[in-house]
Amino acid sequence: MKLRTIIILIISLTLSKASLAQCCSAGNPFFYGEQATIKGNELQVLLGYKYSISDTYYSKSDRVAIDFVDKAYFNYLNLQFIYGLSQRISLEADLGYFLNKTEDYKDAGWQTSNGYGLGDATVKVRYLAYNNFKRKLSITPSLGIKLPIGVFDQETTDHVKLPITVQPSSGSYKYQANIYINKTSKNALWNFGFYGSFEYAQLINSKNFYYQYGNMYLFSILGSYKIGQTIYVGLELRNENRSKSKRENNQVVESSGYQIIYTIPHVSINTKKNLKFSFDAEIPTYRYYNGIQLGNKMAISARVSYPINFLRKIDRKQIFKTDDQ
Amino acid sequence: MTQEIQILLLFSGLMFFVACEKNNGDNPGNISNQISIDSLTATALTVKAWDTTTIVCHATGLDLIYAWECDHGNFNGSGTRIKYAAGECCVGINTITCTISNITGQVSKEIKIEITSYFGGGK
Hints:
- By secondary structure, chain A is mostly beta strands.
- Chain A contains two helices and 17 strands.
- An eleven-stranded antiparallel beta barrel of chain A has the order 1-3-4-5-7-8-9-12-13-16-17. In chain A, strands 10-11 form a two-stranded antiparallel sheet.
- By secondary structure, chain B is mainly beta.
- Classes of the chains: A mainly beta, B mainly beta.
């Protein structure tokens, strides 16, 4: 019964706004960690918040003085459900909501562009392909799809369409293939991970937009250390590459695509009640933009996660029943 | 295990179903013959990236609502006159659409604005 509830929850989360599917911008931001497969019959519920700001134009790795966007920033909420179908397979559903996605302009005569609303949803299947308990090594490939179920073609109250950069949804389906390799030290104090991801974006072909984002390749090395019983500190080095976009008539958008290396310090705290709080900051330490693009300055995020183990709950109920008898 | 396979198949089917869904939400609305756009003009039809051109819509009809859309770039303003600018991301020929509407229906007209590179040398 519980399992059915979870499946219905995941399905309804995925389909709830599917009929409103429209297109939009670069989509939901990336969150740290939570790549490993969880235990069978365990549901993990995660609520995340992210703030990001961009205020400088770059050409290649150099700053360029462009008098247009003063700063672009967003406040974003993310709700994620991960369910361990078995010890090897887990399902993930993920939904994003932009509280705001805003562009302020340097020219005082230009009005601020402000988008908000439901972003993309992601559904993903993870498979624990290799797990060696002795060596504490696991390999988990996963396949996912991002669904543009959110708000696209959003306009102001004066009927003026907002730019694609502040539209909450990405406007097209995106397909992902990922792999996560995890290694824990013998004393279980150190944890290391490698995460690789490939994303292919489908063509946006709506009334207003004909655009295809370039493929994205993401490689990440993660390390964390356990301090005491409840605190983990970690560091991630993430290399994010996106190839150039295309528009009408197969025209390549020269000022698109980039390579960025982020340094991401990370802290997580486990409480006695199984709540886990995570905090991290994304700091670009190397960047190379094709043409001229507005570059990300930094992002900070916070997350809280809570695991619910159904087997344990069922066991307890059975125990109580036995006791009553 | 059988249950797991069933759920996995259901999940995969769901992913396939939503992936194949088509976006057919572009409903043009009723075309009115009681309102018309007489002209849609711009102060410059070719502008450099991040420079501005002003687009003006002259229309005939009662209680008109003006709506503006573009495939690339940013607007500032509303109503009959709007400013348009686009960055280096949007180099090429961009389409700006003005739609007027009232209770009788709606009418649209397009204008093409070419954005040239900030570095010079056109596209």
